[in-house]
Amino acid sequence: MDATPEQMQSGTPGAPPWLVGGTLALEEASALDGPVRAVEPVVRKAFGTGARGAALRGDWLGHALHPVVTDVTLGVWTSATVLDLVGGKGARRSAQLLVGTGLVTAGPTAWTGWAQWVEAGRREKRVGLVHAVTNGAAIGAYGASWISRRRGRHGRGVGWALAGAALSSVGGYLGGHLVTTRQVATHDPGYDDVPAGAS
Q1: Scanning 118, 134, 148, 155, which has the fewest C-beta atoms within 10 Å of its C-beta?
Q2: Contact 124/106 with Cβ under 8 angstroms?
Q3: Does residue 178 contact residue 120 with C-beta atoms inside 8 Å?
């Protein structure tokens, strides 16, 4: 049974929002353990070990690098969508350039995410794998958008970009859950010396 407005205001426990429930179900989905086990050794070898893994996780930065570079990729793709919707014909070339820029930055963005993923716990790896697959589908959609635009099929390119935006929104939600709720993010131990909220 869903929580009533009165329960929500008073803090009385009730059924979680459907997005929360769906995300918790992903965390509990042991069916994902097989794919996780299959992918993990390859990812760990490619992105998670030694100086390369430390650099991709952001040890040198003091904070996880992945959220920083996702802002670049998602930012240019979002800008492309804005131009598609309100920019008119004169903005088509710029929108195509922005889609292409996002495709170029998508690789490094994924590498930093995989480097962070190998350090996560079992439940977080399940969600992270779905996050990665969803974002991979978004990259495919934006790739199709760029090719369509390149061939002069602007309307089709816009449609593919909107599909990519929907997919990346799902991926972004799951990524945000991992970072903010489950705190899957590199940070320098020096920050642990000061309690949160201390003045």
Answers
A1: 155
A2: no
A3: yes
